[in-house]
Specification:
Helix content is 46%, strand content 5%. The chain is mainly alpha-helical. It is globular. The structure holds flavin-adenine dinucleotide and iron/sulfur cluster.
């Protein structure tokens, strides 16, 4: 006869918060369940490192909970009897152990939120849900903050967060330290050749057996992994080590080179902490506090613009995107302001293109399951927007390829910030550029077959003609936007023949996009 439990508590793969108040309770009649299922590996084609990273972090978390004296049932993907869906496994455990109460932590994804609500309706026992105790704002925090507004301006939300959590504030709690809220203008430098890049902290773990298991279970993945040296941090201890590494070695130049791109290294001064935070192994406030503490102790050598840039990303953008997600789902996932319908070029899945910036950003994503923000926004996202790619296809790509991709933060960044498919909820204008910006911020163009200066003709950089083609075809939707007016004035002043040539070049490139 199986042991009896009274209560079943579900922990999802991105809910690995050991400091949650749940785990303070010592109750031997409560069974915690963590599971690997084909339903979660299969709702989109994920990067192999992402699947491995999630599974191994979940396995390590189960061990940590057991060591804390909690009763844990861990279901592996290849366990006999795995029903391969969350609902199926929960129901089987309820039957097996005679469970009388089901509890779960609120999921961050709309899809799972709906699934668990439906499961609870289906169960004939009592069910309850709890907050994950991870975010600094409630699910509806952004919605209430912007009540009645069409555009959700990040800056006002961010300032409110600074005040509320008293971060980088004067003693009055109202004035920002130094009197300036935002140093974004200072954070846009290209990386000089002479600037050394600190080596990333990599954790070298043998994951061969998991790679084999995924193969046996026929889990379809994208990207590559070195089975002998898996680099991501998977436990809270390792994540704290990564945080420490960032604070000591990268924070001092984080702001300055936040937007820089280079072939010389994949990480530059970025933290690579999104995976740790998104799985809840680290709390956003502890991350920010560690950075502020380090800055305070080193104010003579670290400028405030470096730390402000980082704080804005974590307590500003990250919280804001989550709030936008809950304010606008499920409609957000359907938005397509420009009515874009082009297919994502096949080379997004292989990196095989002659455009050096895209080859580099995509190749690195396939290789490392990581690209920094400007690579995602101004290289892969920018090109897809210029091309007019259907945002559904793009969401699938971004949701699969990155280690940190979970829908609440992926879709708001992709459909919202990057593709302007929300018509301007997240951003006030589309993030598009010609080769000018990519050259200004990086070193890709000097190593490229295409000519960054040419708009048409042999080897003209495709970004240039597609850029004007984008503005040309969306005149009705964009020309009244005060932030873009200048571009339309330039376009309208351009000689008619010149415009013809640019549009002809763009049409040619769109037609032959697979060969670019
Ligand atoms: P750092 O540059 O070190 O920044 C520090 C932290 O700030 C990050 O770890 C992250 O938690 C937070 N942050 C920074 N920018 C954002 C942002 N725009 N939105 C939310 N949080 C932010 N981030 C994800 O976590 N998951 C995604 O699936 C994701 N998809 C994206 C898709 C597109 C098209 C774009 C343009 C951005 C996306 N981002 C996503 C945001 C951002 O690019 C990543 O958070 C960042 O690159 C992660 O690397 P890092 O930890 O080294 O970040
Ligand atoms: Fe990219 Fe154009 Fe520069 Fe080549 S020239 S790296 S395609 S922006």
């Amino acid at each position: 006869m199986a042991q009896k439990y009274r209560k079943l508590r579900l922990i999802l793969g991105d809910q690995l918060n050991i400091r949650h108040s749940w785990f303070e309770e010592q109750d031997d009649e409560t069974l915690y369940v963590i599971m690997e299922t084909l339903s979660e590996t299969g709702y989109v084609r994920h990067h192999i490192q992402k699947v491995i990273g999630f599974f191994l972090a979940m396995r390590a978390f189960a061990v940590e909970l057991q060591e804390k004296g909690r009763q844990v049932q861990y279901i592996r993907l290849d366990d006999e009897g795995n029903e391969q869906s969350i609902g199926g496994n929960v129901k089987a455990l309820i039957r097996k152990y005679g469970i009388r109460q089901f509890e779960y932590l609120l999921p961050d994804e709309y899809r799972l939120d709906q699934e668990l609500k439906a499961l609870c309706r289906d169960l004939d026992i009592e069910s309850r849900h709890f907050d994950t105790e991870h975010f600094l704002t409630p699910r509806d925090g952004v919605e209430s903050f912007f009540k009645g507004k069409k555009t959700y301006l990040l800056e006002s939300f961010y300032r409110q967060m600074r005040k509320e959590y008293n971060i980088l504030m004067e003693e009055d709690g109202e004035t920002p330290l130094t009197g300036q809220w935002n140093y974004d203008q200072d954070n846009r430098k290209k990386l000089p050749k002479s600037q050394a890049i600190p080596p990333p902290l990599h954790f070298e773990r043998d994951v061969s057996s998991l790679v084999e298991m995924l193969k046996d279970k026929k889990v379809e993945t994208i990207g590559t992994v070195n089975p002998k040296a898996f680099t991501w941090p998977l436990t809270r201890r390792e994540c704290l080590e990564l945080l420490h590494h960032f604070v000591e070695n990268q924070l001092h130049l984080f702001g300055t080179y936040q937007d820089a791109m280079t072939e010389r290294g994949y990480l530059l001064f970025h933290s690579r902490l999104s995976f740790a935070m998104n799985l809840k192994l680290l709390h956003p406030l502890e991350v920010v506090e560690a950075c502020v503490k380090h800055w305070k102790a080193n104010q003579d050598s670290i400028d405030i613009s470096q730390i402000e840039g980082f704080v804005r990303q974590v307590i500003g953008w990250r919280e804001y995107m989550r709030g936008v997600y809950w304010a606008k789902m499920p409609d957000f996932a359907e938005m397509n302001f420009f009515g874009h319908s082009a297919k994502l070029p096949d080379w997004y899945w292989t990196g095989e293109t002659r455009m050096n910036c895209l080859r580099h950003a995509i190749g690195q994503s396939l290789d490392k399951a990581y690209a920094h923000h400007i690579q995602r926004l101004m290289v892969t996202g920018n090109f897809a927007l210029l091309l007019g790619v259907n945002p559904d296809e793009l969401d699938e790509w971004y949701l699969g390829i990155y280690m940190d991709a979970i829908e609440w933060v992926e879709i708001t960044n992709t459909r919202g910030m990057s593709q302007f498919a929300d018509g301007g909820i997240v951003g006030t204008k589309p993030y598009v550029s010609s080769a000018n910006y990519i050259h200004k911020m990086g070193d890709y163009c000097s190593n490229c077959e295409y000519d960054r200066k040419a708009k048409y003709g042999k080897n003209a950089c495709p970004f240039n003609s597609l850029y004007w083609d984008f503005y040309g075809r969306h005149t009705n939707k964009l020309s009244n936007n005060p932030r873009i007016g200048m571009m339309y004035r330039v376009w309208n002043r351009m000689d008619g023949e010149e415009r013809e040539k640019i549009l002809r070049q763009a049409a040619e490139y769109k037609e032959g996009v697979e060969g670019l």
